[in-house]
Design a protein that fits this description.
The protein is mainly alpha-helical and 135 residues long. The chain is built from five helices and two strands.
Length: 135
Amino acid sequence: MNSALDTFMNLGKGSLEEKESDLYVEKCMDILDRFQFLMESKGLNQKELAEKMGKREPEISKWLNGVQNFTLKTLCKLEIALGDEIISIPKHFVTTRNVPVPPKPISTNKKLHRKHPSPQKAGKQELNSDYAMAA
């Protein structure tokens, strides 16, 4: 099975709608596979997980069968109940809330520094490059 990124990057085939559909199905299957793996590794059945989450067993069944979509809030509750991540976001992703050090560039000896406006100035910041080369 190709990864979701492979599906997304396969730009030469199909319409945008087909690509979106393929990527959606692949990501759903990845989430369901992870969900089922975590349940099995924790030794939980649907009834036990439902009790742990304060849900009814048929709702867990709908999730596992792909009948009902997950909300982000539901995924967070599942991660807490299962004690592990279902979806992972790369930690080097830069946001204005929590700014980790950006990865070092491979082909240069200069360091990259991220310019971060204060929250008060964020809406008034002039258009300029997000990254500036350090001297």
